[in-house]
Amino acid sequence: MSQRQRVFSGIQPSGQITLGNYLGALKQFVNLQDTADAFYCIVDLHAITVPQDPTLLRERILDLASLYIAVGLDPNKSTLFVQSDVSAHSELGWVLQCIVHMGELSRMTQFKEKAEGKDSVSVGLFTYPALMAADILLYQTNLVPVGEDQKQHLELTRDIGERFNTRFGSTFTLPEVLLLDQGARIMSLDDPTKKMSKSNSNPQSRIEMLDSPDDIRKKMSRAVTDSDREVRFDPKQKPAVSNLLAIYSLSANKSIQTLEKEYQGKGYGDFKKDLAEVLVNTLQPIQKRYAEIRNSGEIQDILKRGANRAKEVARPTLDLVKQQVGLGCTTHS
Ligand code: TYM
């Protein structure tokens, strides 16, 4: 029997996927698929915690699936599927809502950020982390590759899993978070104190995976820098340039030190121009594959196969949970 590690991660189909999603998460997904038994989910149930246009949401699910494949995920190696196609996620999500405490959910910084300034928010936005815990725990996951903004949710997932195991007996594997050193937190181009995000109202703040070469060049030339002219990595003193260096390093597969040497004595202008070309060269082949896949008519089949495999793997965990908690009367032997 193979002892491959189980990997699970997800992305919301709630906007255009950014370079931050790519460098923080998607690139890691691809690296893991050869060695791990990986499940990569399109978390549409999480997306509807804020209002979504139904037609656009359905398109975005297919867009994201196409992007998964375009960046290098192979549906024969990884299980690619849509969260709402596997009802076990919602079922376990409910049970875990009955395990997690209000106080724990109230402390989640993502909830606080998303709720800030809103007149009303959905209950689903508040209980979001319980569904995320269900996503992960259902598959007896060992490793969860994510960006840094998800770390707090992962810690809560472990707490929920541990509490359940203590109360009802050993049921869930407790997952570890897998964060990159660089790239775990790619910052906005217009404000290096904020993370690059698909939900930021200013499109100049982010590079999107499907941006045209011209857009990439324009956005890069407008990206904020720091006060002196030195291309040096120092996140405290020089947060903007350090962010661009991290993006450059990950995209060109060059170390930060090599880049610092390369740009010694040169100004920000050259540096940003070269970085724009690196990004154009990184994204163009992905965009070409994306267009082919998105138009191929194969995506639905791939997602259907993925959902079938996911259902098979999720079912025994859900049955065990019901048995441990004392739910239902048809699944217990
Ligand atoms: P989402 O859709 O906001 O983001 C998807 C992934 O991209 C990472 N990410 C970033 N990484 C580095 N720099 C950035 N600026 C940046 N922006 C986003 C995120 O950390 C994430 O890894 N709650 C999750 C989705 C989810 C999930 C799960 C993830 C639902 N269930 C189970 C893992 C396991 C989210 O909203 O990701």
Q: How many beta-strand elements?
A: 5
Distance between the termini: 26 Å
Class inferred from helices and paired strands = mainly alpha
Note the beta-strand portion.
5-15%
Main sheet characteristics: 3 strands, parallel
Count, helices: 13
- Ligand types: tryptophanyl-5'AMP
CATH topology of the largest domain: Rossmann fold
Rounded Rg: 21 Å
Question: Can you name the CATH architecture of the largest domain?
Answer: 3-Layer(aba) Sandwich
Task: Give the C-level CATH assignment of the largest domain.
Answer: Alpha Beta
User: In order across it, which strands form the biggest sheet?
Assistant: 1-2-3
Q: Give the number of domains.
A: 2
Overview of the molecule:
With 333 residues, this protein is mainly α. It folds into 2 domains: 209 residues, Rossmann fold (3-Layer(aba) Sandwich), CATH 3.40.50.620; 82 residues, Tyrosyl-Transfer RNA Synthetase (Orthogonal Bundle), CATH 1.10.240. It contains 13 helices and 5 strands. The strands form 2 sheets. Strands 1-2-3 form a 3-stranded parallel sheet. It has a two-stranded parallel sheet with strand order 4-5. Helix 10 packs across helix 12. It starts with 5 loop residues before the first strand and ends in an 8-residue tail after the last helix. The model has no long low-confidence stretch (mean pLDDT 96). It binds tryptophanyl-5'AMP.
Please give a quick description of this structure.
This protein has 333 residues and is mostly helical.
